[in-house]
Structures are given as structure tokens and as C-alpha cells.
Specification:
The chain is of the alpha/beta class and 308 residues long. The protein has two domains: 137 residues, Aspartate/ornithine carbamoyltransferase (Rossmann fold, 3-Layer(aba) Sandwich); 152 residues, Rossmann fold (3-Layer(aba) Sandwich), CATH 3.40.50.1370. It contains nine helices and nine strands. Strand 5, helix 6 and strand 6 form a beta-alpha-beta unit. It binds phosphoric acid mono(formamide)ester. Phosphoric acid mono(formamide)ester (CP) binds next to helix 2. One of its GO terms (molecular function) is amino acid binding. Catalyzes the condensation of carbamoyl phosphate and aspartate to form carbamoyl aspartate and inorganic phosphate, the committed step in the de novo pyrimidine nucleotide biosynthesis pathway. Belongs to the aspartate/ornithine carbamoyltransferase superfamily. ATCase family. Its EC number is 2.1.3.2.
Length: 308
């Protein structure tokens, strides 16, 4: 399986065998990611981080992965402090950074920007989120979390929240279709998953149900994947309040849940999960954000030709 120099742009670029190989590699590297074992697999390599939008987890877990595996990081810092504020284009910025690093991680508000950057770069470009498009490394760590904490094959999962604009939900649905998942989409009518994604899932023989009620599905699922409801997209604040209240995960909702139900969230959460849930065995979201480190370490070692 050839990963060296591969650009990581969309989950659609991955077969199931490729995903399994990345997850297996991440499992091997998890002790290094936890700081329990030492490794120099990325020694002498430099990773550049270009974030045109805010990030905590993606940016810092890439940094942690690189540093714990012996590599170094060049962070462009804020857009205001860079020459982009003088009007430099993304294409020129990429051409320049290509000479400073062995791989580039890019988060940008424009859909398609990572694919475009890859055309100007001789080193691998990793998409860390391109507008409402894809966030493939989030999906890989979500799959790792599901495999590590539950099971992937035939998983019964409900994905809840803003399914219209949420890029993590789009990438995750596609990837789960490779594992025969049974998917329930929970959202208000106005934030339903785009029809082309649902058609794509059905063309892969995936069972997809849509509902607005969490109560309707809670007793039947292995994983509840919550996503942020994007308040800024609601013209009427009272509409937002209604939706946010109807999809909030509160302790009473879990009365009917399976004992082994895992609750996931890409974070940051706003009001989607009551903090009381944090103390229950269902809360998986903070471990999920840690799993970003072994998964990104695995991906970096594979694309930079240092497979452990
Ligand atoms: N999950 C995620 O992408 O988080 P950040 O925006 O903090 O990177």
C-alpha cells in the first residue's frame, strides 16, 4: 500500500484497506502518543501548519504527534501576522512553504482549497478542514475511536446536529458506508443532510433513516455522534433556541440507552451535551480528541515515508 507523498484531501480518496492500515498503524503508535514509549520515527522532518481559521484540537494534536515522534513544527501563526495580510495568495504561500517543510497541514475557509494547494506543493498537503467540504483526519480519528471503544463493522450510529453544513458529519457518513453501518440522521428539517450524500449512502446499500427526535432512536444505537448546531446560521434566534433544546443530550435522555452506548463529539461543544454527561461511562469525547494524536502520527509517518 503506497502512502508516501500522498495528499490527504478527502475521505473519498481512501479504500477500506487503506483506512484499516492507518488505524492499525495508529494503534501501534498509541503508546508513543501517550508519552509512554519513545520514538524517533519522524526525526529530522519538519511539518508546517497553515491555519486560516481557528483550531485547538487539530492544530495542537498535529503538533503533539510530530514532537512526540521526534519531528519539528513550523507554525505560520495567525493570518494577520503573515504576509497573507499584505495580499499574498494561497498559491504563492504554498509554493514558498513547500521549500521549508516536508508536509503541509492546511485549514482554510474555502471548499476545494486543500486540493488546489496540493497542485502547487511538491510535499504532501493534509486537509485540516476546507470550509463546508471535508475534514478527513477528523474522520480517521472518529473511526479509530469507534473501533477502539466499540466496533466498526455494522455499527448502529446516530449522527445529530447540523447535518447540512457540518463537514465532519459528511466525511464520517461516507467512511461509515465502507463498514456497513446503520445510520440514523437526527436534525431539524432545516439542517438535514444534503440529498446527494444520502443517495450516495443508499447506493452503497447503507440503511439511512432521518428523524428530528433523539428519543426515537436512543435505545437502539451503539454510538451517538453529536455535532455543533451552528447558531450563526439561524436568522431567527428563537428558532435556534428551539432546535438547540430539542437536540441537547441530557441525563434523562440516556435512561433508555444501551449500557455500552458511546457519546462522541468532534468538539468544541457549545450546548449540545449537558456537562453532567461527562461523569457517565457514555462520555467518549475527550478520549476521542486524544485519539487525534496517534491517528495523525500514523498518517504523518505514512505520508512522509517513515512507516513504523
Ligand atoms: N474537531 C476540531 O476540528 O476541532 P478544532 O476546530 O479545535 O481543530
Amino acid at each position: 500500500m503506497k502512502f508516501t507523498n500522498m495528499d490527504i484531501i478527502s475521505m473519498k480518496d481512501f479504500s477500506r484497506d487503506m483506512i484499516d492500515h492507518i488505524l492499525d498503524t495508529a494503534e501501534k503508535l498509541e503508546p508513543v502518543a501517550r508519552g509512554k514509549e519513545r520514538s524517533d520515527i519522524l526525526q529530522g522532518l519538519v511539518l508546517s501548519l497553515l491555519f486560516f481559521e481557528p483550531s485547538t484540537r487539530t492544530r495542537m494534536s498535529f503538533e503533539s504527534a510530530m514532537v512526540r515522534a521526534g519531528g519539528s513544527v513550523l507554525n505560520m501563526g495567525s493570518v494577520e501576522a503573515s504576509s497573507i495580510s499584505k495580499g499574498e495568495t494561497l498559491a504563492d504561500t504554498i509554493r514558498v512553504i513547500d521549500g521549508y517543510a516536508d508536509a503541509i497541514v492546511l485549514r482554510h475557509p474555502k471548499e476545494g482549497s486543500a486540493r488546489m494547494a496540493a497542485e502547487y506543493s511538491s510535499v504532501p498537503v493534509i486537509n485540516a478542514g476546507d470550509g463546508a467540504g471535508q475534514h478527513p483526519t477528523q474522520t480517521l480519528l472518529d473511526l479509530y475511536t469507534i473501533r477502539r471503544e466499540s466496533h466498526l463493522e455494522g455499527i448502529k450510529i446516530a449522527i445529530a446536529g447540523d447535518l447540512k453544513y457540518g463537514r465532519t458529519a459528511h466525511s464520517l457518513c461516507y467512511a461509515l458506508s465502507l463498514y456497513g453501518a446503520d445510520i440514523t440522521l437526527v436534525s431539524p428539517e432545516s439542517l438535514r443532510m444534503p440529498e446527494e450524500i444520502i443517495e450516495d449512502l443508499r447506493s452503497h446499500d447503507i440503511n439511512v433513516y432521518q428523524t428530528s427526535s433523539m428519543e426515537e432512536v436512543i435505545s437502539d444505537i451503539d454510538v451517538l455522534y453529536a455535532t455543533r448546531i451552528q447558531k450563526e446560521r439561524f436568522p431567527d434566534p428563537t428558532e435556534y433556541q428551539k432546535v438547540a433544546a430539542s437536540l441537547k443530550i441530557v441525563p434523562q435522555l440516556l435512561d433508555e440507552a444501551k449500557e455500552g452506548l458511546k457519546i462522541m463529539h468532534p468538539l468544541p461543544r457549545i450546548n449540545e451535551i449537558d456537562p453532567q454527561i461527562d461523569e457517565t461511562p457514555h462520555a467518549t469525547y475527550f478520549r476521542q480528541s486524544f485519539y487525534g494524536v496517534p491517528v495523525r502520527m500514523a498518517l504523518l509517518s505514512l505520508v512522509m515515508g517513515r512507516e513504523p
